[in-house]
Amino acid sequence: MIVRDRPSALRLFLLLRGSVLPTILPSLTLNMFVATLVTISHGDLFRLKITLTPIPFSLIGLALAIFLGFRNNAAYDRYWEARKLWGELVHRSRSLARQCQTLIALPEDLPVRTDLQDVRTRIVHRAIAFAYALKHQLRDTSTADAEAELRPHLLQSELEQVSSKYNRPDFLLLRMGKDLQACVQAGRIDPCLAATVDDTLSAMAAAAAACERIKGTPIPFSYTLLLHRTAYLYCFLLPFGLVDSIGFMTPFVVGIVAYTFFGLDALGDEIEEPFGTEANDLPLDAICRTIEINMRESLGETNLPQPLTPVNYCLS
Amino acid sequence: MIVRDRPSALRLFLLLRGSVLPTILPSLTLNMFVATLVTISHGDLFRLKITLTPIPFSLIGLALAIFLGFRNNAAYDRYWEARKLWGELVHRSRSLARQCQTLIALPEDLPVRTDLQDVRTRIVHRAIAFAYALKHQLRDTSTADAEAELRPHLLQSELEQVSSKYNRPDFLLLRMGKDLQACVQAGRIDPCLAATVDDTLSAMAAAAAACERIKGTPIPFSYTLLLHRTAYLYCFLLPFGLVDSIGFMTPFVVGIVAYTFFGLDALGDEIEEPFGTEANDLPLDAICRTIEINMRESLGETNLPQPLTPVNYCLS
Amino acid sequence: MIVRDRPSALRLFLLLRGSVLPTILPSLTLNMFVATLVTISHGDLFRLKITLTPIPFSLIGLALAIFLGFRNNAAYDRYWEARKLWGELVHRSRSLARQCQTLIALPEDLPVRTDLQDVRTRIVHRAIAFAYALKHQLRDTSTADAEAELRPHLLQSELEQVSSKYNRPDFLLLRMGKDLQACVQAGRIDPCLAATVDDTLSAMAAAAAACERIKGTPIPFSYTLLLHRTAYLYCFLLPFGLVDSIGFMTPFVVGIVAYTFFGLDALGDEIEEPFGTEANDLPLDAICRTIEINMRESLGETNLPQPLTPVNYCLS
Amino acid sequence: MIVRDRPSALRLFLLLRGSVLPTILPSLTLNMFVATLVTISHGDLFRLKITLTPIPFSLIGLALAIFLGFRNNAAYDRYWEARKLWGELVHRSRSLARQCQTLIALPEDLPVRTDLQDVRTRIVHRAIAFAYALKHQLRDTSTADAEAELRPHLLQSELEQVSSKYNRPDFLLLRMGKDLQACVQAGRIDPCLAATVDDTLSAMAAAAAACERIKGTPIPFSYTLLLHRTAYLYCFLLPFGLVDSIGFMTPFVVGIVAYTFFGLDALGDEIEEPFGTEANDLPLDAICRTIEINMRESLGETNLPQPLTPVNYCLS
Amino acid sequence: MIVRDRPSALRLFLLLRGSVLPTILPSLTLNMFVATLVTISHGDLFRLKITLTPIPFSLIGLALAIFLGFRNNAAYDRYWEARKLWGELVHRSRSLARQCQTLIALPEDLPVRTDLQDVRTRIVHRAIAFAYALKHQLRDTSTADAEAELRPHLLQSELEQVSSKYNRPDFLLLRMGKDLQACVQAGRIDPCLAATVDDTLSAMAAAAAACERIKGTPIPFSYTLLLHRTAYLYCFLLPFGLVDSIGFMTPFVVGIVAYTFFGLDALGDEIEEPFGTEANDLPLDAICRTIEINMRESLGETNLPQPLTPVNYCLS
C-alpha cells in the first residue's frame, strides 16, 4: 500500500512509484505509435481512407463507460471488503485477548504461568499465529516461510501438526476451541461466557472464509474480456476518428485517452486481487504486526516489536 | 467459473472460452448483415431514404445506458451475493465442526467412536451432506445424482428418508437439531452452548433460504423485455444513422456497438442465474469439495479427497 | 411475478404479457400523434415556427437521466428488499419449526399429540398463519379472505380473537410467546434455549415491520412529480427539436424515446409497491405455500399441498 | 409525507401540494427573466456580444451531473435510513411488549394489576413514551408539547424527572432497565431471558442514537456550496449559450432546465433532514401513533386511539 | 464540521468559510492565467496553432467523470462510515452505562459509593475516557493533551498505566473487562448478563478498530494519481479546445470547469480523512462531549458540562 501525502501539482507528473504507467507502457506506446502513423497518412490505411468521425466513439464510449465504471466499482469493493475483513480480524483478536484474560478464571490450585503452558497465554498467541497463517495462505507462500512466522507463537508439537494441514487457520481455531472446552470442563469459565468466546472464534473463522472467497472468486472473466476488447478497439480506432478534426494533435489526445482507459483497467486488475504483494495491495505484513503488538501488550509483555513503517512510501 | 490469468493483448481477441461471442453470434451476424445492406443502398429502404442522423441515437442511448447499467449491476449483485452465501456456508460448516468437537463432551460411559454412530461425527458428515443436497436442489439434478453424493455421509436409513423430502437440506438440519437435543438431554452439552450450536444451524438455514430466493426470483421480466427491445431497435436502426457520415465503415462500427450491447446483455443473462453449470456460473462442485475436505480434516480423517482444479480453465 | 425463459429475438417484440406497453399506451399514442402533427406542419405551431434544435434535449436529458436512474434504483431496491424480507420469513419459519421440535422437550407425563393441542404443533401452525396473515395485511384483503386461509392453522377460539385485532401477525407472535412461556415454566425448555426461540420470534416481527415500512412509505411524492413532469415535457417537445434534421422519421424516433422513458417510469411505479397483485409483483401466494409445505413437512405430515406453479407465465 | 396515487397526466402539471415549485419560484422567475432579457438583446451584454455556445454547457454539465447525482443519492439514503430506524423502533417496541408479557412471570404473591403499578404494563407504556420523547427531541419541540404527549404513559414522578433531563429517551431506557433488574432480583425472569430483553433495550438505544446522528450531521456543507454555485452559474449563463441556436424559445428551455436543476436541489434540501414537519418529511406523528396502538393492543387495552390519516394528502 | 443554514442565493457566492476555494486558488489562478494567454494568442503556442476542438474533451471527459464520481463516492462513504462508527460509540457507551447500573447488583455488605471506587461508576467513567483516548489516537495528538482529557475520568494509577500503552483505548477495555470479571466472581452479576456486557465492550472495540482502519488505509494512491493527472491535463488543455468557438469567454468558462473539477477533487481529499481538524472533518470534540454528558447524567451527576456549540459556524 502506498502511503504518502498528495504531491504538489508538478511532482504529480513525475512520479512513477504507485503509478500504473509502467504496467501499461507497452500498450500505450504501441497505441501512440499507431496514432502517429495514422496522422502521417491522414487516416488512410493502404491508400484506403478510413471514413471514421468522432460520432461512433461517442456511441461506443457509452458502453465503455458502463463497463469501466462497473468493473472499477466491483474491484474497489473487493479491495475495501478485504480491508474490512482484516480490520475485523484485528478487532476480534483484541476481543479474544480481553475475553481470555477476563472471562477465564485463574486456576485455583496451579501456579500462574505466563508462557504457552498457560491456557490464556496460549490462546492469545494462537490468535497471533492465526493471523500469520491466514496471511501466508492468502499469499500462497512456502511452508517454510509460514513456519518461520508461526514458530514463536506455537508449541513445537502444534507447529508440526499445523504444517501438515490443508487449512491451517481453521486448525488453530479448533485448537483454541479445545482449550476453551477444557476450561469449561474445569469450571474455569461459565458456559454462558464460553458461548461468547466461541462466538469470537466463529467470527474469526468467518473473516478467514470471506478472505478465501475474495481470493478464490475473481470478477467473472467474461467481463474482463469484454472490457479489454472494447477498450482496445476503441483506443486503436480512435486516431482514424480524430485525425480529420484535430490533425497533428491526434497522437497526443489518443495518448491521454488511452492512458486513462488502460490505466483504469490496469488499476482494476491490481486492486481486484488485494492480497498480493504489489504496490497497491493491502499491507498484510503491517496488519499482522499490529495484531501481534496488540495481543502481546494485552498479555503485559514489554519486549514488543515495532510497528512496520513504509519503505520508499510503500507499506508491505 | 473461468479461472485464468489475463491473456496478452493479442490473445485477448482470439479467445472464445469464457467469451459471450458464441451466444450472441446469430444476432450479431444478422445485425452486421443488415448494416451491410444499408451501406450498399446508402440508407434507402425500398427506394425511400430513411432520414436518420446520429442525434436520435445519442438521445435513445441515454435511456439505454440507464437500462444496461442498472441490469448489469443487479445481475452482478445476485452473482456476488450467491457467492457470499456459499462462503457463509463454508464458514458455518467449519464452525459447526469446531463446535461439535469442542462444545459437546465425550460420552462418559460409552466407548469413543469415530464413525457415523458417534453424534459428533454424524453431525459433521451431515453438514457435508447439507452442502451437497443444497447444490443439487439449486441445480435441479436428479434424485439419483444427489443420492450418489449424499450416500457416503449419511446412514442408510437417513438417506432413504431424505430422498423423499420436498426440502432435503432443511430435513438434514432438523436431524442435526435432534442429535443436538439428545446431547442436551444427556447432559453432554450445556444449554447455553447448545444455543450457540443452534445459531449455527439457523445460519445454515438462512444461507440455504437465501440461495433459494436468488434461484426463484429473477430480475423482473419487464426490465429484461424493455432492455432487449430497446437494444435491438437501437442496433438495427443504427446503420441508417451512421451511413451518411461514415460510409463503408458502417457495418464495422455497428458490429462493435452491437458486440458490446448484446454482449453485456448476454453476460447479464448468464450471471443473473449463478447456480447453473455454464462457464461463468459459480463453482459449486469445487466449493462443496472444499467443505468436505475441511470437515473431514477437522475430524482427523486423513484419506481426504483432492480439491477440484480447473479443467480447460473452467472450475465447475 | 413473470416466470419465463427469455423469448427469441422475434417473439420479443410480440409479447404483451409482462410488458408495460398496455399501461403506457395512451400517453405513447398521444405523443406519437403530436409528433405526426409536428412533422406535417414542419414544426410550426399556429404558423409560428418553434425554433428548437436537438441541443436543449441533450442538456435536459442530463437531468432526466439522473432522475430516471435514481428512481429506478430506488424502486428496485424496495422490490428486492421486500423479496429478501419474505426470504427471511421462509428461513425464520423453518428455524422456528426446527427449534420447536428439537429444543422443547416432550411432556413427560402427557401423551404425545400431533394436533393443535400439542404446543409444538401449535406454534408451527401459527407460524404458517403468521405468513398468511401478513400477506393479507400487506394486500389489504377482506377479513373473510384472511380468515379462510388462517382457519386450518388456528384453534377456533384463536381465530376469533385474531380477526378482531388491528395487527394480526403481531398478535400471533404474542400467542407463540405465551406458549413458549408455558414451556419455560413447565421446565420443558431451558431459559437459554428459550432465549434463542424468542430471538426467532423477534426476527419474524422485524421482517413484518419492515414489510409494513415498505408498504407505508412510498418514494417521496415530489420525486415522482418532478420526474413525470420532466419526462412529459421532454417527450412532447422532442418532435420540434428533431423534425428539422430527421423529417418524416420524427414520430418513429419520438415513439422509441417515449417508449423507453414512459416504460421505465411505469415499471418503476409497478415495482415500487411490490406487495400488490400485478404481473410484476412478488408471488406472495407461492411463498406462503412454500412456508406451509416446509412447516408441515417438518412436522412429519404427509398430505402436503402442491407448490404453486405459474399460470400463463405468471406466479401469483 | 405526501400520500396520494399518481395523478393523471394533465393534473400532474397543475399540482402544487408536494411540489417543490413554490420553494424555487423566486430563483426560477429571476432566471427566466434574465433569459428573456438575453433573448431580446440577442446575447449582448452592454453591447458586448457574449460568445458562448452550447459546448461549454455540455462540459460543465458533466461535473454538475456528478454533483447532483451524488447529493441526491446521499440525501435519499439519509431519508430512507431514517425511515428504517423508525421501522426498527416499531419492531423493537412490539418485541419488547411481547417479551414483557411472555418472559416476565406474574408475581406469585401479588394481585395482578394492569395499570402503571404493574411492571409489565409500566415498561410497555414507557416504550410508547420513548417513541414520543424521541420524536420531540428530533423535532426540537418545547418541553410543554413533549410533556403533553408523555403524560398518559408515565407516572407523575417519572414525568417530572424526565423533563429535566438532557437526553430524555435514554433516561426512559434506564428506567426500564431498572425495572428489569428488579424482576431479575425478584426471580420473575431468568437472567438468560433478561439478557434478551436487555438486547431489545440496547437496540432501541441504537435506533435513537442513529436518528440523532442523522439530525446532527448534515451532508458536508462544502458539497452544498459547490453544487449551488455550479448550478446557479450554469443556469444563469445558459441563455447566452442557447440564444443563437434556438432564439425566442430560450427562456422556455432555460426555464425547464432550471426547474429540474433547482427542483432536484431543493428536493435534496428537504429530504436531507427527514425529521422536520415539511410536506416531504417522515410522518413521525403517525408512526408514534402506530406504536401506541400496537403496544396498548398487546396489553389487551380496548379503547385504542385511531391511526392517523392523511390530511389534504399529507400525513404528519 | 460546518453547521449553518443554506445561505441566500447571493451570499452563496461570497462565502469563503467551508468553501474549498482557498485550497484550490493557486491551481485555479494558474489555469485561468494560461487560458488568458491562449485566448490572446488565439490558440497558438510559439506560433504553432494547437489544433484542438471540443471533441477530444467530450471523450476524455467520459473517463474523468468515471474517476471523479467513483472517488467522490468512496470519499464520502469513508466520511459517513466514520460518522456512523462514532454514533455507534455514542450508543454503546449509553448502553454500557445502562447495563452497569441495572445488571450489576449493588454490593450487599459495602456502603454505596458514587466515586471511582465504585465499580459501576468506574466503568462508566472509563467509557468516557475510552472516547477521549480514541479521539486523541485518531488525531495523533500529544500524550500531554490526551492525559489532560483523560485525567478526570481515571484513577491516578490507571492514568499512568494508560499513557505508556501502544493502544490506549484497548487497554481501557481490558480494565473494564477485569472489573466485570470481579463482579462475576463476587456474584454481583449473572454470567448470562455479563456476556451481554462483554458484547458491549466488544462492540466498542469493533468501532475503534474500524476507525483505525479508515485512518490507516487511504483510497489507493494510484487512483488519486490517475485522477489528478487526468484532471490537470484536461483543464490546462481545455483553452485550446474552446478558444476557436467561444473566443474571449474562454478563460471564464475554463475557470468554471476548473473550479468544479479541482473543487470536487479537493473536497474528496478533505472528506477522505474525516478524523482531522479541518472545517469539513467530523466534530469529534463535540461527540466526545455528548458522550461525557450522557454518561454522567446517567450516573445522576448534576454538574454537567455544556454541549459544544459551533464557533463561527464550525463545530470542532
TrEMBL record, chains A, B, C, D, E:
Family: Belongs to the anion channel-forming bestrophin (TC 1.A.46) family.
Cellular component per GO, a single term: plasma membrane
Subcellular location: Cell membrane
Topology of this chain in the membrane: Multi-pass membrane protein
Domain of life: Bacteria
Species this chain originates from: Noviherbaspirillum denitrificans
Pfam family, one: Bestrophin_2
Residue ranges of the TM segments: 12-38, 50-70, 231-262
Protein name: Bestrophin
Main location: membrane
InterPro entries referenced in this protein's UniProt entry, alphabetically: YneE/VCCN1/2-like
Recorded GO MF terms: chloride channel activity
Sorted UniProt keywords: Cell membrane, Ion transport, Membrane, Transmembrane, Transmembrane helix, Transport
